[in-house]
Amino acid sequence: MIRNPAASTVDPMSRPSDRCPGVFSAHPAADGHLARIRLPGGLITPAQVLALVGVSDGFGDGHFELTSRGNVQVRGITDIDGAGELILDAGLIPSPSHERVRNLQLSALTGRRGGLLDARPILAEFDRRLQSDAALAKLPARILFGVDDGRGDILTQGPDIGVLAIDDQSFDVVVGGKPTGRQVAAADAPAVMIDLAHAFLADRNDEWRVQDLAGRAAIDGVLAGLPVTGEYSRSQAGSEPRVGWLAQDDKNLVALGSVVPHGRIPARVGEFLAAIERDIYLTPRKEILIVDLSEGMADTVLRVMAPMGLIFDENSPWTRITDCTGSPGCDKSHTDVRGDLDRHLGAVDVAIDDREHWVGCERGCGSPHEDHIRVEATPTGYTRRRL
Ligand code: SF4
Protein backbone atom coordinates (compact mmCIF):
# COMPACT_ATOMS: atom_id res chain seq x y z
CA MET A 1 0.00 0.00 0.00
CA ILE A 2 1.48 3.38 -0.86
CA ARG A 3 2.23 5.83 1.88
CA ASN A 4 -0.47 8.44 2.43
CA PRO A 5 1.21 11.85 2.82
CA ALA A 6 -1.67 12.85 5.13
CA ALA A 7 -1.33 9.78 7.31
CA SER A 8 0.29 11.70 10.14
CA THR A 9 -2.58 14.19 10.27
CA VAL A 10 -5.47 11.74 10.04
CA ASP A 11 -6.56 9.83 13.11
CA PRO A 12 -6.40 6.15 12.10
CA MET A 13 -9.37 5.45 14.34
CA SER A 14 -11.41 7.84 12.26
CA ARG A 15 -10.86 5.95 9.03
CA PRO A 16 -14.11 4.74 7.48
CA SER A 17 -14.70 1.05 8.03
CA ASP A 18 -16.03 0.35 4.55
CA ARG A 19 -13.74 -1.16 1.93
CA CYS A 20 -14.24 1.19 -1.00
CA PRO A 21 -10.84 1.27 -2.65
CA GLY A 22 -8.85 4.41 -3.26
CA VAL A 23 -5.20 4.94 -4.09
CA PHE A 24 -3.88 4.81 -0.53
CA SER A 25 -6.16 1.86 0.13
CA ALA A 26 -5.77 -0.08 -3.11
CA HIS A 27 -7.89 -3.22 -3.09
CA PRO A 28 -6.13 -6.58 -3.52
CA ALA A 29 -8.07 -8.39 -6.27
CA ALA A 30 -7.43 -11.69 -8.02
CA ASP A 31 -5.60 -9.88 -10.83
CA GLY A 32 -3.46 -7.62 -8.61
CA HIS A 33 -4.22 -4.40 -6.77
CA LEU A 34 -7.02 -2.13 -7.87
CA ALA A 35 -6.66 1.63 -7.38
CA ARG A 36 -9.69 3.88 -7.76
CA ILE A 37 -9.19 7.56 -8.43
CA ARG A 38 -11.96 10.03 -7.64
CA LEU A 39 -12.61 12.65 -10.32
CA PRO A 40 -14.91 15.37 -8.94
CA GLY A 41 -17.47 16.18 -11.61
CA GLY A 42 -15.91 13.47 -13.79
CA LEU A 43 -13.34 16.02 -15.01
CA ILE A 44 -9.92 14.90 -16.14
CA THR A 45 -7.35 17.06 -17.91
CA PRO A 46 -5.19 15.91 -20.84
CA ALA A 47 -2.10 15.79 -18.58
CA GLN A 48 -3.98 13.63 -16.09
CA VAL A 49 -5.15 11.29 -18.86
CA LEU A 50 -1.49 10.93 -19.83
CA ALA A 51 -0.61 10.11 -16.20
CA LEU A 52 -3.27 7.38 -16.21
CA VAL A 53 -1.72 6.02 -19.40
CA GLY A 54 1.59 5.81 -17.54
CA VAL A 55 -0.03 4.10 -14.56
CA SER A 56 -2.01 1.56 -16.56
CA ASP A 57 0.79 0.86 -19.03
CA GLY A 58 3.68 0.88 -16.56
CA PHE A 59 2.11 -0.67 -13.48
CA GLY A 60 -1.36 -2.00 -14.35
CA ASP A 61 -3.08 -4.19 -16.91
CA GLY A 62 -2.74 -1.73 -19.78
CA HIS A 63 -6.21 -0.20 -19.42
CA PHE A 64 -8.04 2.26 -17.23
CA GLU A 65 -11.64 1.63 -16.46
CA LEU A 66 -14.64 3.90 -16.06
CA THR A 67 -16.81 3.43 -12.96
CA SER A 68 -20.50 3.90 -12.36
CA ARG A 69 -19.72 7.03 -10.34
CA GLY A 70 -17.80 8.75 -13.10
CA ASN A 71 -14.43 7.86 -11.58
CA VAL A 72 -11.58 5.76 -12.99
CA GLN A 73 -9.76 2.70 -11.72
CA VAL A 74 -6.70 0.77 -12.75
CA ARG A 75 -6.53 -2.99 -12.20
CA GLY A 76 -3.70 -5.47 -12.06
CA ILE A 77 -1.28 -3.09 -10.33
CA THR A 78 1.95 -4.77 -9.39
CA ASP A 79 3.87 -1.76 -8.01
CA ILE A 80 1.45 0.38 -6.04
CA ASP A 81 4.15 2.75 -4.83
CA GLY A 82 5.19 3.53 -8.40
CA ALA A 83 1.60 3.91 -9.55
CA GLY A 84 0.73 6.09 -6.56
CA GLU A 85 3.59 8.47 -7.21
CA LEU A 86 2.47 9.05 -10.78
CA ILE A 87 -1.09 9.66 -9.61
CA LEU A 88 0.03 12.13 -6.95
CA ASP A 89 2.39 13.94 -9.34
CA ALA A 90 -0.52 14.42 -11.77
CA GLY A 91 -2.48 16.30 -9.12
CA LEU A 92 -5.18 13.65 -9.06
CA ILE A 93 -5.21 13.58 -5.25
CA PRO A 94 -5.00 17.20 -4.09
CA SER A 95 -6.03 16.31 -0.54
CA PRO A 96 -4.80 12.87 0.55
CA SER A 97 -6.78 13.02 3.80
CA HIS A 98 -10.02 13.47 1.84
CA GLU A 99 -9.15 11.19 -1.06
CA ARG A 100 -12.00 8.71 -0.72
CA VAL A 101 -14.76 11.15 0.28
CA ARG A 102 -14.48 13.37 -2.81
CA ASN A 103 -17.33 11.57 -4.52
CA LEU A 104 -18.71 14.61 -6.31
CA GLN A 105 -21.00 14.39 -9.31
CA LEU A 106 -21.95 17.19 -11.67
CA SER A 107 -24.46 17.41 -14.50
CA ALA A 108 -22.82 16.35 -17.73
CA LEU A 109 -21.97 19.26 -20.03
CA THR A 110 -23.25 21.83 -17.53
CA GLY A 111 -22.35 25.34 -18.67
CA ARG A 112 -21.81 24.03 -22.19
CA ARG A 113 -25.08 22.44 -23.27
CA GLY A 114 -28.50 22.59 -21.62
CA GLY A 115 -29.30 22.95 -17.93
CA LEU A 116 -30.74 25.92 -16.05
CA LEU A 117 -27.35 27.30 -14.97
CA ASP A 118 -23.63 26.58 -15.07
CA ALA A 119 -23.18 24.33 -12.03
CA ARG A 120 -19.38 24.06 -12.26
CA PRO A 121 -18.55 26.92 -9.85
CA ILE A 122 -20.86 25.48 -7.20
CA LEU A 123 -19.21 22.07 -7.32
CA ALA A 124 -15.71 23.61 -7.35
CA GLU A 125 -16.48 25.75 -4.29
CA PHE A 126 -18.00 22.80 -2.46
CA ASP A 127 -14.92 20.69 -3.24
CA ARG A 128 -12.65 23.47 -1.94
CA ARG A 129 -14.61 23.70 1.31
CA LEU A 130 -14.76 19.92 1.69
CA GLN A 131 -11.00 19.52 1.33
CA SER A 132 -10.27 22.26 3.86
CA ASP A 133 -12.61 20.80 6.48
CA ALA A 134 -10.64 18.25 8.51
CA ALA A 135 -13.69 16.78 10.25
CA LEU A 136 -15.22 15.78 6.92
CA ALA A 137 -12.33 13.41 6.20
CA LYS A 138 -14.24 11.07 8.53
CA LEU A 139 -17.15 10.72 6.11
CA PRO A 140 -17.69 7.19 4.80
CA ALA A 141 -16.19 6.58 1.37
CA ARG A 142 -19.55 5.59 -0.07
CA ILE A 143 -21.08 9.01 0.39
CA LEU A 144 -22.14 10.74 -2.80
CA PHE A 145 -22.50 14.49 -3.31
CA GLY A 146 -24.18 15.90 -6.39
CA VAL A 147 -24.82 19.21 -8.11
CA ASP A 148 -27.57 18.96 -10.72
CA ASP A 149 -28.10 21.89 -13.07
CA GLY A 150 -31.78 21.06 -13.40
CA ARG A 151 -31.63 18.41 -16.09
CA GLY A 152 -32.08 15.63 -13.53
CA ASP A 153 -29.13 13.44 -14.50
CA ILE A 154 -27.45 13.69 -11.09
CA LEU A 155 -30.69 13.40 -9.16
CA THR A 156 -31.08 10.04 -10.92
CA GLN A 157 -27.84 8.93 -9.25
CA GLY A 158 -29.40 9.33 -5.79
CA PRO A 159 -26.84 11.63 -4.12
CA ASP A 160 -26.80 11.53 -0.33
CA ILE A 161 -26.41 15.29 -0.26
CA GLY A 162 -26.84 17.63 -3.19
CA VAL A 163 -28.73 20.40 -4.91
CA LEU A 164 -31.05 20.47 -7.92
CA ALA A 165 -31.42 23.74 -9.85
CA ILE A 166 -34.97 25.03 -10.06
CA ASP A 167 -34.11 28.22 -11.98
CA ASP A 168 -30.94 30.08 -12.93
CA GLN A 169 -30.27 31.29 -9.39
CA SER A 170 -31.54 28.77 -6.89
CA PHE A 171 -31.71 25.10 -5.97
CA ASP A 172 -33.91 22.60 -4.23
CA VAL A 173 -31.81 20.85 -1.58
CA VAL A 174 -31.45 17.10 -2.11
CA VAL A 175 -31.02 14.71 0.81
CA GLY A 176 -31.05 10.94 0.67
CA GLY A 177 -31.53 11.00 -3.10
CA LYS A 178 -34.71 13.12 -3.00
CA PRO A 179 -35.52 16.82 -3.31
CA THR A 180 -36.54 18.14 0.11
CA GLY A 181 -38.62 21.13 -0.96
CA ARG A 182 -36.16 23.43 0.81
CA GLN A 183 -34.58 26.17 -1.22
CA VAL A 184 -31.07 27.62 -1.29
CA ALA A 185 -29.55 30.40 -3.40
CA ALA A 186 -26.78 29.29 -5.74
CA ALA A 187 -24.17 31.32 -3.83
CA ASP A 188 -25.12 29.60 -0.56
CA ALA A 189 -25.42 26.06 -1.92
CA PRO A 190 -21.82 24.93 -1.15
CA ALA A 191 -22.08 26.07 2.49
CA VAL A 192 -25.44 24.35 2.97
CA MET A 193 -24.05 21.11 1.53
CA ILE A 194 -21.12 21.34 3.97
CA ASP A 195 -23.56 21.90 6.86
CA LEU A 196 -25.51 18.82 5.76
CA ALA A 197 -22.31 16.75 5.61
CA HIS A 198 -21.57 17.67 9.23
CA ALA A 199 -25.17 16.89 10.14
CA PHE A 200 -24.82 13.47 8.53
CA LEU A 201 -21.79 12.77 10.72
CA ALA A 202 -23.77 13.87 13.78
CA ASP A 203 -26.73 11.62 12.87
CA ARG A 204 -24.61 8.67 11.82
CA ASN A 205 -23.82 5.55 13.78
CA ASP A 206 -22.15 3.21 11.32
CA GLU A 207 -24.38 3.88 8.31
CA TRP A 208 -22.57 4.47 5.02
CA ARG A 209 -25.33 6.40 3.26
CA VAL A 210 -27.79 9.09 4.35
CA GLN A 211 -30.53 6.87 2.96
CA ASP A 212 -29.72 4.30 5.66
CA LEU A 213 -29.85 6.60 8.70
CA ALA A 214 -32.09 5.55 11.58
CA GLY A 215 -32.74 9.19 12.50
CA ARG A 216 -32.08 12.56 10.87
CA ALA A 217 -32.37 15.04 13.70
CA ALA A 218 -29.28 17.07 12.75
CA ILE A 219 -30.08 16.98 9.04
CA ASP A 220 -33.66 18.06 9.70
CA GLY A 221 -32.29 20.90 11.80
CA VAL A 222 -30.29 22.24 8.85
CA LEU A 223 -33.26 21.91 6.50
CA ALA A 224 -35.59 23.66 8.93
CA GLY A 225 -33.52 26.82 8.60
CA LEU A 226 -34.12 27.02 4.84
CA PRO A 227 -37.14 28.51 3.04
CA VAL A 228 -39.69 26.24 1.43
CA THR A 229 -39.32 25.82 -2.32
CA GLY A 230 -42.26 26.99 -4.41
CA GLU A 231 -43.71 25.06 -7.33
CA TYR A 232 -41.27 24.32 -10.12
CA SER A 233 -41.12 22.04 -13.11
CA ARG A 234 -38.18 19.83 -14.00
CA SER A 235 -36.62 19.38 -17.39
CA GLN A 236 -36.39 15.82 -18.69
CA ALA A 237 -33.17 16.56 -20.57
CA GLY A 238 -31.28 14.19 -18.28
CA SER A 239 -32.40 11.30 -20.42
CA GLU A 240 -30.98 12.64 -23.67
CA PRO A 241 -28.22 10.52 -25.26
CA ARG A 242 -24.72 11.83 -24.69
CA VAL A 243 -23.06 9.90 -27.47
CA GLY A 244 -22.08 11.42 -30.79
CA TRP A 245 -21.87 15.02 -32.00
CA LEU A 246 -23.18 17.38 -29.29
CA ALA A 247 -23.27 21.05 -30.26
CA GLN A 248 -22.42 23.32 -27.34
CA ASP A 249 -24.66 26.29 -26.58
CA ASP A 250 -22.30 29.00 -27.74
CA LYS A 251 -19.02 29.80 -29.46
CA ASN A 252 -19.59 27.25 -32.25
CA LEU A 253 -17.94 24.58 -30.17
CA VAL A 254 -18.74 20.90 -30.11
CA ALA A 255 -18.56 18.14 -27.54
CA LEU A 256 -18.08 14.56 -28.66
CA GLY A 257 -19.62 11.82 -26.57
CA SER A 258 -18.50 8.22 -26.78
CA VAL A 259 -18.49 4.88 -24.99
CA VAL A 260 -16.07 1.95 -25.02
CA PRO A 261 -16.78 -1.77 -24.65
CA HIS A 262 -16.80 -2.83 -20.99
CA GLY A 263 -15.94 0.76 -20.01
CA ARG A 264 -12.25 -0.04 -20.50
CA ILE A 265 -9.92 2.43 -22.20
CA PRO A 266 -6.70 0.89 -23.52
CA ALA A 267 -3.60 2.92 -22.66
CA ARG A 268 -2.91 3.45 -26.38
CA VAL A 269 -6.35 5.05 -26.82
CA GLY A 270 -5.67 7.14 -23.73
CA GLU A 271 -2.53 8.53 -25.38
CA PHE A 272 -4.58 9.75 -28.32
CA LEU A 273 -7.25 11.19 -26.02
CA ALA A 274 -4.58 13.19 -24.21
CA ALA A 275 -3.18 14.41 -27.52
CA ILE A 276 -6.49 16.14 -28.32
CA GLU A 277 -5.54 18.61 -25.56
CA ARG A 278 -9.09 19.17 -24.37
CA ASP A 279 -10.68 18.45 -21.00
CA ILE A 280 -12.65 15.24 -20.76
CA TYR A 281 -15.67 14.54 -18.57
CA LEU A 282 -16.53 10.98 -17.53
CA THR A 283 -20.14 10.35 -16.60
CA PRO A 284 -21.79 7.80 -14.28
CA ARG A 285 -23.18 6.22 -17.46
CA LYS A 286 -19.57 5.59 -18.46
CA GLU A 287 -19.69 8.11 -21.28
CA ILE A 288 -16.52 9.91 -22.35
CA LEU A 289 -17.22 13.55 -23.22
CA ILE A 290 -14.48 15.47 -25.04
CA VAL A 291 -15.43 19.15 -24.82
CA ASP A 292 -14.67 22.51 -26.43
CA LEU A 293 -13.74 21.21 -29.88
CA SER A 294 -14.00 23.28 -33.01
CA GLU A 295 -16.04 21.58 -35.71
CA GLY A 296 -12.88 20.83 -37.66
CA MET A 297 -11.21 19.27 -34.64
CA ALA A 298 -14.30 17.23 -33.83
CA ASP A 299 -14.36 15.90 -37.36
CA THR A 300 -10.71 14.84 -37.08
CA VAL A 301 -11.26 13.25 -33.66
CA LEU A 302 -14.14 11.21 -35.05
CA ARG A 303 -12.07 9.97 -37.98
CA VAL A 304 -9.05 9.08 -35.81
CA MET A 305 -10.67 7.73 -32.66
CA ALA A 306 -13.55 5.68 -34.07
CA PRO A 307 -11.22 3.12 -35.70
CA MET A 308 -9.34 2.90 -32.39
CA GLY A 309 -12.47 1.72 -30.59
CA LEU A 310 -14.29 4.80 -29.31
CA ILE A 311 -17.97 4.36 -30.17
CA PHE A 312 -19.77 7.54 -31.25
CA ASP A 313 -22.95 5.79 -32.44
CA GLU A 314 -25.86 6.36 -30.04
CA ASN A 315 -27.49 3.19 -31.37
CA SER A 316 -24.60 0.96 -30.31
CA PRO A 317 -25.54 -1.63 -27.65
CA TRP A 318 -22.54 -0.42 -25.65
CA THR A 319 -24.49 2.77 -24.87
CA ARG A 320 -26.97 0.61 -22.95
CA ILE A 321 -24.91 -2.31 -21.59
CA THR A 322 -22.39 -2.31 -18.78
CA ASP A 323 -20.78 -5.16 -16.88
CA CYS A 324 -18.64 -5.98 -13.88
CA THR A 325 -15.12 -7.39 -14.02
CA GLY A 326 -16.03 -11.05 -13.65
CA SER A 327 -13.38 -13.75 -13.72
CA PRO A 328 -10.45 -14.00 -13.88
CA GLY A 329 -10.07 -10.53 -12.31
CA CYS A 330 -12.60 -11.21 -9.56
CA ASP A 331 -12.44 -14.51 -7.72
CA LYS A 332 -16.09 -14.24 -6.63
CA SER A 333 -17.38 -14.47 -10.17
CA HIS A 334 -19.14 -17.56 -11.47
CA THR A 335 -17.96 -16.83 -15.01
CA ASP A 336 -15.99 -14.68 -17.44
CA VAL A 337 -18.63 -11.95 -17.69
CA ARG A 338 -16.83 -9.86 -20.30
CA GLY A 339 -16.23 -12.85 -22.55
CA ASP A 340 -19.85 -13.95 -22.20
CA LEU A 341 -21.10 -10.49 -23.05
CA ASP A 342 -18.82 -10.27 -26.10
CA ARG A 343 -20.18 -13.59 -27.33
CA HIS A 344 -23.76 -12.49 -26.62
CA LEU A 345 -23.36 -9.27 -28.59
CA GLY A 346 -21.55 -11.11 -31.35
CA ALA A 347 -24.55 -13.37 -31.90
CA VAL A 348 -26.81 -12.60 -34.83
CA ASP A 349 -30.13 -10.82 -34.17
CA VAL A 350 -29.46 -9.74 -30.60
CA ALA A 351 -31.64 -6.73 -29.86
CA ILE A 352 -30.68 -4.62 -26.84
CA ASP A 353 -33.50 -2.19 -26.14
CA ASP A 354 -33.26 -1.91 -22.35
CA ARG A 355 -30.54 -0.70 -20.07
CA GLU A 356 -28.70 -3.89 -18.99
CA HIS A 357 -26.01 -4.58 -16.43
CA TRP A 358 -24.20 -7.95 -16.45
CA VAL A 359 -22.61 -9.26 -13.25
CA GLY A 360 -20.73 -12.38 -12.22
CA CYS A 361 -22.38 -12.85 -8.80
CA GLU A 362 -25.13 -11.57 -6.55
CA ARG A 363 -23.09 -8.64 -5.27
CA GLY A 364 -23.96 -6.69 -8.41
CA CYS A 365 -20.90 -4.38 -8.47
CA GLY A 366 -21.22 -1.25 -10.57
CA SER A 367 -24.99 -1.47 -10.90
CA PRO A 368 -26.55 1.65 -12.39
CA HIS A 369 -28.91 3.71 -10.25
CA GLU A 370 -31.43 4.04 -13.04
CA ASP A 371 -33.99 1.32 -13.86
CA HIS A 372 -32.28 -1.56 -15.61
CA ILE A 373 -32.22 -5.28 -16.19
CA ARG A 374 -29.66 -7.17 -14.15
CA VAL A 375 -28.20 -10.15 -15.98
CA GLU A 376 -26.63 -12.16 -13.18
CA ALA A 377 -24.42 -15.24 -13.42
CA THR A 378 -25.23 -18.16 -11.12
CA PRO A 379 -23.60 -21.59 -10.88
CA THR A 380 -26.19 -22.83 -13.36
CA GLY A 381 -26.28 -19.96 -15.85
CA TYR A 382 -27.53 -16.38 -16.14
CA THR A 383 -30.75 -14.98 -14.69
CA ARG A 384 -32.46 -11.76 -15.77
CA ARG A 385 -34.54 -9.49 -13.58
CA ARG A 386 -35.65 -5.88 -13.67
CA LEU A 387 -34.37 -3.61 -10.87
S1 SF4 B 1 -20.45 -8.49 -9.07
FE1 SF4 B 1 -19.43 -10.25 -8.14
S2 SF4 B 1 -18.23 -11.09 -9.84
FE2 SF4 B 1 -18.74 -8.98 -10.38
S3 SF4 B 1 -16.99 -7.78 -9.68
FE3 SF4 B 1 -18.56 -7.76 -8.08
S4 SF4 B 1 -17.95 -9.41 -6.69
FE4 SF4 B 1 -16.90 -9.75 -8.63
Structure description:
With 387 residues, the chain is of the alpha+beta class. It folds into three domains: 1-100 and 246-314, Sulfite Reductase Hemoprotein, domain 2 (Alpha-Beta Complex); 104-224, Sulfite Reductase Hemoprotein, domain 1 (2-Layer Sandwich), CATH 3.30.413.10; 320-386, Sulfite Reductase Hemoprotein, domain 1 (2-Layer Sandwich), CATH 3.30.413.10. It is 23% helix and 22% strand. The protein has eight helices and 19 strands. The chain has helices spanning 46-58, 80-89, 120-131, 189-203, 217-224, 267-275, 295-305, 337-346, and strands spanning 27-29, 32-37, 43-44, 63-66, 72-77, 104-106, 145-148, 161-165, 170-175, 178-185, 244-247, 254-258, 264-266, 280-282, 288-293, 321-323, 356-359, 373-378, 381-386. The chain has a five-stranded antiparallel beta sheet with strand order 1-2-5-4-13. It has a five-stranded antiparallel beta sheet with strand order 3-14-15-12-11. β14 and β15 (288-293) form a beta hairpin. α1 runs antiparallel to α2 (80-89), α1 runs antiparallel to α6 (267-275) and α3 (120-131) crosses α4 (189-203). It is globular and about 55 Å long. The relative contact order is 0.12. Mean pLDDT is 91; it is low at 6-17. The chain binds iron/sulfur cluster (SF4).
